[in-house]
Design brief:
By secondary structure, this protein is mainly α. The chain has helices at about 1-20, 25-55, 65-95, 95-120, 125-155, 160-190, 195, 200-210, 225-245, 250-275, 290-325, 335-340, 340-360, 365-385, 390-420, 425-455, 460-470, 475-480, 485-495, 500, 505-510, 515-520, 525-555. The chain has 3 domains: about 15-225 and about 280-455 and about 540-555, Up-down Bundle (Growth Hormone, Chain: A), CATH 1.20.1250; about 225-280; about 460-535, no CATH class. It is about 80% helix and about 0% strand.
């Protein structure tokens, strides 16, 4: 043991003599900047959609708008997920810094073009342009996310990796939380700024990365690229992720989504078979034989599904129901929702650095387990809240959820990277972030489905009785009550009252002015869906609590940390 430690100390001294004692901090600051922007851009549109659709002049209930919404929201995640493993393998072969630098350049160019597009192209064409450029931006983001943790693992000695990867993980996950706040604030100022915010950071990060970062990785000497495995993986991921996306649109559920998901499952099975036979596979299944690695990936997947679903649900809850019921104009809901969610980000940012630092001394198990148990309790408390809650009851619960996530994220990411052999850190990092991105997709589909199922039972009756009470004819009220649950939720997410579109102008004009104003105003539609939403809300929160408890069990069962120096 003493001989091994002495050898490791000598390696550390030689590395610092070659690179300079401050290089590790250069690597940390640059990768943190990249991770922060990639995280922010993964979520900034979720809260900004009302401002973007209004700015583009796209009707939220028009045919095809749901497709635009989903692709604008998820295109970034889909593109980054598809390329992560391929990039991780290429990084192990040809250099992590080289691939990382290229990613910053792609990210900066795409960010600049996004801002220009938002200024000059509107309508459906403008939305399609933004979607295409978000896909390119997601590819650049995948270059950054796939390599950040690997670059830090190479640059830092083992006794400081928890602190370094913890800071980076805080930047990525914290960035996804800050993206909600930044998006809400910029929406209130000028929606074009949502796309501009990445431009200066992308340009600065690109220049800084090329000038300051140096290749020090232990690269894989065998330059064998698994072409068949990469193609099968890309096609499988593309089929599954797009299939999941179209599951959110009822008209597509029995058609495109079923075909794509079936194809994705078949391609995934073929991919696993090919990887077991390949001499140098892109998806290193041997890593899952390391207990610390497999436990970390499993607990991350469960925790991230719970977190992603919670974020998506709370945005709909705040923007579509709670804020309008408290007199906030639909166009102003992004800013107020961002302010309401500040405790979530604060809780995460307070505990993330501390847990990362302490995990270097005491290991990841206690912090990851406790963090998920805190989250489990937070979700159970959230399920007890009424739809039209008192904010002072909501605040400590959402802060508690931020604390639990911060306590879990940094130690878990560090444990995963510590378990990977040096020459496999690129692909290990790619695998970790791939599962992180996949969990976001799964969470939205799962929780949207649970929410829709809970709402669907009561929504038709609520719409029918609410309209009849406002002197709308029984026949028209019955027809409108057939409004698909997904359409109602999309309208809530986009801050739109669909009654303005669903009730004919002739019918509205025949009503007294006070009733017209009430039906098309702030409170009528949110009040209609408030009671049905309550049941869906509880189903989602109970399921999130179950996932968090399962993540705690997976964390608790991990072995004593295995560190590959």
């Amino acid at each position: 043991m003493a001989e091994s430690q002495s050898k490791y100390d000598a390696q550390t001294e030689r590395r610092e003599a070659r690179l300079g004692i401050h290089y590790k901090w250069i690597a940390l600051s640059n990768t943190t900047l990249g991770g922060l922007m990639a995280g922010i851009d993964s979520s900034i549109l979720l809260i900004s959609l009302p401002a973007i659709f209004n700015g583009l002049g796209v009707n939220a209930l028009a045919p095809g708008s749901a497709d635009l919404l989903l692709w604008l929201l998820l295109g970034y995640t889909i593109s980054s997920s598809i390329f992560l493993l391929t990039i991780g393998r290429l990084s192990d072969m040809f250099g992590r810094v080289r691939i990382y630098n290229l990613g910053f350049l792609i990210f900066a160019v795409a960010s600049t073009l996004l801002y220009i597009s938002s200024l000059f192209i509107s309508g459906t064409t403008g939305a399609l342009s933004l979607i295409a450029l978000r896909v390119v931006q997601g590819i650049g983001g995948s270059f950054l996310m796939a390599n950040s943790a690997a670059i830090l693992t190479d640059a830092f000695p083992k006794e400081e990796r928890g602190k370094a990867i913890g800071v980076n993980q805080i930047a990525v996950v914290g960035g996804s939380l800050l993206g909600l706040i930044v998006g809400g604030v910029l929406s209130a100022i000028d929606w074009h700024l949502i796309f501009l915010v990445s431009v200066p950071v992308g340009i600065l990060g690109t220049a800084w990365a090329y000038l300051a970062l140096r290749e020090i990785a232990t690269l894989d000497k065998i330059k064998n690229f698994d072409i068949l495995g990469n193609v099968l993986f890309a096609l499988a991921m593309l089929s599954i992720l797009i299939g999941l996306t179209y599951m959110l649109i009822p008209a597509s559920a029995s058609g495109y989504s079923g075909i794509l998901l079936t194809a994705g499952i078949i391609l995934s099975a073929a991919f696993v078979y090919v990887e077991t036979k390949a001499s140098h596979p892109m998806f290193n299944l041997d890593l899952f034989r390391i207990r610390e690695f497999s436990a970390g990936i499993l607990s991350q997947l469960l925790a991230s599904i719970a977190r992603g679903g919670m974020q998506f649900l709370i945005i709909i809850w705040l923007q579509g129901i709670w804020l309008p019921l408290h007199g906030v104009n639909f166009l102003d809901t992004p800013l107020h929702a961002a302010i309401a969610m500040l405790p979530l980000a604060i809780g995460f940012l307070l505990t993330g650095p501390i847990s990362g630092y302490l995990s270097d001394k005491y290991g990841a198990r206690v912090f990851t387990t406790l963090g998920m148990l805190i989250n489990c309790g937070g979700f159970l408390l959230m399920a007890l809240l009424p739809t039209n809650f008192n904010y002072y009851a909501f605040l400590p619960i959402i802060f508690m959820l931020g604390v639990g996530q911060g306590m879990f994220s940094s130690p878990n990411a560090t444990a995963i990277m510590n378990a990977a052999p040096p020459e496999r850190r690129g692909v290990a990092s790619g695998m970790r972030v791939t599962f992180l991105n996949m969990s976001m997709m799964f969470s939205i589909v799962i929780f949207f489905g649970l929410l829709s199922a809970g709402i669907a039972v009561q929504l038709p009756h609520a719409i029918y009785s609410g309209l009849v009470a406002q002197n709308i004819s029984a026949q028209l009220a019955f027809n409108i009550s057939k409004l698909p649950t997904s359409s109602a939720l999309f309208a809530a997410l986009l801050g739109d009252n669909p009654m303005k579109t669903l009730i004919p102008n002739a019918t509205l004009s025949s009503l007294p002015a006070a009733k017209q104003q009430f039906i098309t105003g702030l409170e009528f539609f949110p009040d209609l869906i408030s009671s049905p939403f309550q049941q869906g809300l509880r189903d989602v929160m109970y399921f999130s609590a179950l996932l968090s408890f399962a993540a705690a069990v997976a964390s608790m069962l991990r072995s004593r940390e295995h560190i590959a120096t």
